[in-house]
UniProtKB/TrEMBL annotation:
A Gene Ontology biological process term: establishment of protein localization to organelle
Annotated compartments: Cell projection, Dendrite; Cell projection, Growth cone membrane; Cytoplasmic vesicle, Secretory vesicle, Synaptic vesicle membrane; Early endosome membrane
Protein name, per record: Lysosome-associated membrane glycoprotein 5
Source domain of life: Eukaryota
Pfam families hit by this protein: Lamp2-like_luminal
Name of the coding gene: LAMP5
TM ranges: 237-256
Ranges for domain Lysosome-associated membrane glycoprotein 2-like luminal: 44-213
Residues spanning the signal sequence: 1-29
Record function comment: Plays a role in short-term synaptic plasticity in a subset of GABAergic neurons in the brain.
Keywords, sorted A to Z: Cell membrane, Cell projection, Cytoplasmic vesicle, Endosome, Glycoprotein, Membrane, Signal, Synapse, Transmembrane, Transmembrane helix
Length: 280
């Protein structure tokens, strides 16, 4: 019994050590992050990089703004009216992150941690008619905000920390091995713990890759969002139509010139027999 007890205690100790090692490894991974927003030429865009084992495993460039409704007392101090706070993700934010084969996470904190953004990405495989295909997507967004912070909130009634979460989110869907790029604005609705309030997250100038980065600090091939593809088509379509029209005009003029030259070289036979004597 004593030997068995020792063996059980040894196994339990080993489990504890493994759990501690796993926790330390996760903490170490979270610390390997960089905020490179100063390199961006767009003052509203932030650049975040997560590195594990000395290599880049997650890169994210985007501009983010949050529209947060909150209640204040009306002038009669009886009724409530709803105001709106516009909170932009600022440069110099604190960043954390972690990477995994099928799940990656980015966390950003700013204004003395009055605001925190968490973005969760998942990688999945699906069976299609062409065979198994892997994609990744943004599966969850969480935004924590403090309505007692005086820069953006003015005398909020329910001042304090609130959490806004996405619901059944599937955004930025991208084929595995590619990065997601979208210049157009995209909105995500978040349900707030502040009763009957919905926070709107606005993303723009997005370029993200949370999996399968091959080269350090370099995005893989871009997968553009449908809005950008339509805008690109709208921009190039007039040029294409202009080139086609120009080609039609050139071909028409060339055919006319050749036809005119051929008919000019032909000897015209007079219809009046009396004109035959003048020939030759």
């Amino acid at each position: 019994m004593d030997l068995r007890g020792r063996a059980v205690r040894s196994v339990d100790s080993l489990r504890v050590l493994l759990m501690l090692f796993h926790t330390v490894a996760q903490i170490t991974a979270e610390q390997e992050v960089e905020n490179l927003s100063g390199l961006s030429t767009n003052p509203e865009k932030d650049i975040f990089v997560v590195r594990e084992n000395g290599t880049t495993c997650l890169m994210a460039e985007f501009a983010a703004k949050f529209i947060v409704p909150y209640d204040v007392w009306a002038s009669n101090y009886v009724d409530l009216i709803t105001e709106q706070a516009d909170i932009a993700l600022t440069r110099g934010a604190e960043v954390k992150g972690r990477c995994g084969p099928s799940e990656s996470e980015l966390q950003v904190f700013w204004v003395d941690r009055a605001y925190a953004l968490k973005m969760l990405f998942v990688k999945e495989s699906h069976n299609t008619s062409k065979g198994p295909e892997a994609t990744w997507r943004l599966s969850k967004v969480q935004f924590v905000y403090d309505s007692s912070e005086k820069t953006h909130f003015k005398d909020a009634v329910s001042a304090g920390k609130h959490t806004a979460n996405s619901h059944h989110l599937s955004a930025l869907v991208t084929p595995a091995g590619k990065s997601y790029e979208c210049q157009a604005q995209q909105t995500i609705s978040l349900a707030s713990s502040d009763p009957q309030k919905t926070v709107t997250m606005i993303l723009s100038a997005v370029h993200i890759q949370p999996f399968d980065i091959i080269s350090d600090f370099v995005f893989s091939e871009e997968h553009k969002c449908p809005v950008d593809e339509r805008e690109q088509l709208e921009e190039t379509l007039p040029l294409i139509l202009g080139l086609i029209l120009g080609l039609i005009i050139v071909v028409t003029l060339a055919i006319y010139h050749i036809h005119h030259k051929m008919t000019a070289n032909q000897v015209q036979i007079p219809r009046d027999r009396s004109q035959y004597k003048h020939m030759g």
